[in-house]
Amino acid sequence: MAEEYEKERTLEYTSTWAVAIVCFVILAISILLEHAIHLFEKFLKRKRRVALVEALEKVKSELMLLGFISLLLTVLQGPISNICVPRKVASSWLPCKEGLEAKKSGRRLLEFSEFGGVIRRSLATKGYDNCTGKGEYAFVTAYGIHQLHIFIFVLAIFHVLYCLTTLALGNIKMRRWEAWEKETKTHEYKYFNDPERFRYTRETSFGQRHLSFWSRWKISVWIVCFFRQFFGSVTKVDYLTLRHGFIKAHLPPGSETKFDFQDYIQRSLEDDFKVVVGISPIIWFSAVLFLLTNSHGWRSYIWLPFITLFIVLLVGTKLQVIITKLGLRIQERGNIVQGIPVVQPGDELFWFGRPRLLLLLIHFVLFQNAFQLAFFAWGTYSFGLKNCFHERTADIIFRVSMGVFIQVLCSYVTLPLYALVTQMGSTMKPAIFNDHVATAIKHWHTTAKKHTKQSHHSNADPPFSSRPATPAHLLQTYNHRSEESLHEIESDRWPQLEMTNESSHDRSDVVEEEQPDLPNQPSMPPQATAPHAR
C-alpha cells in the first residue's frame, strides 16, 4: 500500500486557494482570540479590578512565551533530530518498556520518503530515524519534538484554567464573609461586643474554640488543626477576631465600623493571583524534573500526587496552627480580656518569618496538579485512553480523582484560609489602598521623582507652585465621587501633614488678625519686625 502514496508537495505545487484558506482561518482565530481578551480586559477595567487586569497581562506574557517556544521548536527541529546517540544510552530511562508496540491513536500517521533515499520529516507527520542507519538512535526525533510541543501548550492552558478555577471556588467560599462583615456595622454587634465588658479569656467564643486541653502540647495542637481544616476551616468567630486584631494593629481608633475587611482581603487575594497565574523559571524547572521522573518503573503518577496532597495539607494545618497560637498569645497576656479578644499579628508566626512562602507553596501545588492532569489529557490525545502511561483503568481513575480532590481542597479550603490568616503579618499589604488611592499615590510618586531630577539640574529652588502636590491633595483630585473615604484616608494616613497644614493656617490667621491693628500702633524698626515675619 505504501507504493500507492505520492511524496508530499511543497508550497511550489500547492494550490494558492488552499494556502489562502489556511492563512485566513489561522488569522481569523488569532484576531478573535485577541479581541476576546481585549473585551475581557475592558470589562475588568470597568469593574475596577486592577489586580485582575495585571493578572491578565501575565497570561498574555505566558502566551507570548509559548509562541517563542513554538518558534524555537520549529526552527531547531532538524538540528536536534540529527543528533545521534548510542543505542544503549537512548534505551535508558524510557517511559515505556522496550519492544512494547505503540497503541494506535484515533488517527493514522503516514510515512513518506523523498527521492534519493533521504527521509523527509514534517512537524505533523511521523518519519524515519536517520541515525538507525549508523547503528544509533536520534537524540529526540522530529515527531517527538512535535509531541513535546503539544504537551507544553496543553500544560500552560491547564495551568491557567486551574488558577481561574481556584480563584472562582475560593470566592464562592468567601461570599459568606460579606454577611459577617455587614454584621459588624449593626448595633447588635456593638452591644454583644461592648469594649467595657470584662470576661475570662477561656469564656470568650474565640477562647472556647482554641484554648482547651489539647492546646497545651504542640503535637496535639498540630493533630487537632490537621482535622479542623476539613470541618469549618474559617469560622465566624475566627474571622471577626482576626478582623478586630488587624484593625487594632494597623488602623487608627474608630475604624472598627468603617473599614471593610472582607473587601481588603478580596483585593489582596487578587494581587496574589497575579503571582499564582504566572509560571516562574523555578516552576518551569520543576516541570523538567517531573518529565525526568516519568520513567518506566518509577510510577511517578502514583507518588507525585501524594507529594502535592501532603504540601496542601501541611499548609492548611500550619494556617490553623497560627490561629491557635494567636489565641495562646492572648492567654499569655492575662486570663481576663476587655471587650473582644485582641490578637497580635506578627511575621514570626509564619515559617522563617515569611508569610509569602505559603503563597509559593500554593503556587507549586496548583502547577504540579495541573501538570498531572495536563499529562493525562496529552497522553490520551496522543496515544489513546489506555497506553503505557496508564495501562489499567484503576490508574486512570486514581490520577483523575486525585487531581479533582486536590483542586477542590486547595480552592475551597486552603485558599480562603490563606487569604485570611496571611493578613496576620507584621505589615499591611498594598491592597489596603483602593484603586483610586493607589493611582493617586503612584502619580504623586512619579511627579515627585520628576521634580527631584529637575532640581538636581538647577541650583535655585523651584517655585512653590511647581512643586509636586502632597498625596492628600492628589487624592482630592482623583476621587471626587468618594470624598468621605478620602477624608478618612487623609486623617488616618497623613496626620502629621494635617497638623502641619493646620498650624500653618493658624499662623496665617494670626498674622491676618494682627495686621489691621498695625497702623494704630507705633511703627517698629525692621530689625524688630523681621523675627515676627519669620
TrEMBL record:
<dbReference type="InterPro" id="IPR004326">
    <property type="entry name" value="Mlo"/>
</dbReference>
<dbReference type="GO" id="GO:0005516">
    <property type="term" value="F:calmodulin binding"/>
</dbReference>
<keyword id="KW-0472">Membrane</keyword>
<feature type="transmembrane region" description="Helical">
    <location>
        <begin position="150"/>
        <end position="172"/>
    </location>
</feature>
<feature type="transmembrane region" description="Helical">
    <location>
        <begin position="357"/>
        <end position="376"/>
    </location>
</feature>
<feature type="transmembrane region" description="Helical">
    <location>
        <begin position="396"/>
        <end position="421"/>
    </location>
</feature>
<feature type="transmembrane region" description="Helical">
    <location>
        <begin position="301"/>
        <end position="323"/>
    </location>
</feature>
<feature type="region of interest" description="Disordered">
    <location>
        <begin position="448"/>
        <end position="534"/>
    </location>
</feature>
<comment type="similarity">
    <text>Belongs to the MLO family.</text>
</comment>
<keyword id="KW-0812">Transmembrane</keyword>
<dbReference type="GO" id="GO:0006952">
    <property type="term" value="P:defense response"/>
</dbReference>
<keyword id="KW-0611">Plant defense</keyword>
<feature type="compositionally biased region" description="Basic and acidic residues">
    <location>
        <begin position="480"/>
        <end position="495"/>
    </location>
</feature>
<protein>
    <recommendedName>
        <fullName>MLO-like protein</fullName>
    </recommendedName>
</protein>
<dbReference type="Pfam" id="PF03094">
    <property type="entry name" value="Mlo"/>
</dbReference>
<feature type="transmembrane region" description="Helical">
    <location>
        <begin position="275"/>
        <end position="295"/>
    </location>
</feature>
<keyword id="KW-0112">Calmodulin-binding</keyword>
<feature type="transmembrane region" description="Helical">
    <location>
        <begin position="61"/>
        <end position="80"/>
    </location>
</feature>
<keyword id="KW-1133">Transmembrane helix</keyword>
<keyword id="KW-0568">Pathogenesis-related protein</keyword>
<feature type="transmembrane region" description="Helical">
    <location>
        <begin position="17"/>
        <end position="40"/>
    </location>
</feature>
<comment type="function">
    <text>May be involved in modulation of pathogen defense and leaf cell death.</text>
</comment>
<dbReference type="GO" id="GO:0016020">
    <property type="term" value="C:membrane"/>
</dbReference>
